[in-house]
Automatic annotation (TrEMBL):
Its EC number is 3.5.4.26, 1.1.1.193. This is Riboflavin biosynthesis protein RibD. SUPFAM superfamilies: Cytidine deaminase-like, Dihydrofolate reductase-like. Converts 2,5-diamino-6-(ribosylamino)-4(3h)-pyrimidinone 5'-phosphate into 5-amino-6-(ribosylamino)-2,4(1h,3h)-pyrimidinedione 5'-phosphate. Binds 1 zinc ion. InterPro entries: APOBEC/CMP_deaminase_Zn-bd, CMP_dCMP_dom, Cytidine_deaminase-like, DHFR-like_dom_sf, Eubact_RibD, RibD_C, RibDG_C, Riboflavin_Biosynth_HTPR. The lineage of its organism: Bacteria, Bacillati, Bacillota, Bacilli, Bacillales. In the N-terminal section; belongs to the cytidine and deoxycytidylate deaminase family. In the C-terminal section; belongs to the HTP reductase family. It catalyses: 2,5-diamino-6-hydroxy-4-(5-phosphoribosylamino)-pyrimidine + H2O + H(+) = 5-amino-6-(5-phospho-D-ribosylamino)uracil + NH4(+); 5-amino-6-(5-phospho-D-ribitylamino)uracil + NADP(+) = 5-amino-6-(5-phospho-D-ribosylamino)uracil + NADPH + H(+).
Amino acid sequence: MKDQDYMNLAIQLATGTIGQTAPNPSVGCVLVREGVIVGMGSHLIPGEGHAEVLAVNQAGEKARGATAYVTLEPCSHTGKTPPCSRLLIESGVIRVVVATEDPNPLVSGRGINQLKDAGLDVTVGLMKKEAQEINQKFFHFMKENRPFVTLKAAMTLDGKTATKTGDSRWVTGKKAREHVHMMRARHDAILVGKGTVVKDNPSLTVRQPVYGKSPIRIILATNLDLPDHLTVFHDDQKTYIVCGQSAPVEAFLEKHPNVGVIQMTNDTLEIDEVLTRLAALNIQSVYVEGGEAVHKSFVSSGFIDECHIYIAPKLLTGKDSYGVIGGASPEWMKDALMLSFDHVEKIGEDIFIKATKKMGD
């Protein structure tokens, strides 16, 4: 096996933990000595051992003289756990292959420099693109200081999301809906508007445990006028309601003490301020599953990084049915939000499309 083979294994280890390590990135590590894998690890839960720790613990004394393949630059600072760069040095590792530098300013090059200063042979950049894709949302958050935003919608072939009565169960099939749960688990938060929770009373959780943990729930409700019976008020999943400046926050919290409230500086819920406030809570990615109005607000704001669109082989028809995005249309096609198709996949009877915002738009 070559360097790339071992790094590919480390990337596979990291990929398996996407969505469950936040606010930390997903990282994989493989230790190899004399052509034999002696330790492997991936960061599983924030606050617990990093990938390098697990790999070194598994290797024990066999780590001495080994090469470490790590998908992300080893941390060099003390947070909830000690620095991994120091651990690799003390364990006797003599060579470290790093896929990509850590964009976190607390690390960013420092971990690599510590390894080099200690006399270790360090190589950086092997499978860099693949490694950065694993932590796309983490890299974005560190660079932009705002959450990565994914807009999700399920629609018929003619672009409809619900009938004229609002009935939307179900647009797509079971396999596509299961795929949605996997995507939810890969985001820190899920965001909807008041209309969605009042009409559908959803749980907004990941109901297939195999996919990972449920995201934090974010609900936009300008006046906090939400009925008390909603599911989101009666379980243990963390929930925040975003409201306007004039909303009756104290009265609301008396009824729902376990729910957080994020109050805006005015009575209009501006998306840029919403995202700024979520970033302050270290929420690095948001899965927007709203209706026409919420989707329009995000598209108009320009803060859409990726779209997940599920298309069912159905024709609903009708001007009075609901679509993906509401509001007024721009006058000219040149004013459309330009995207690139990154991935197209058939899931069951439905089609899944992942499209990303074009760079520079």
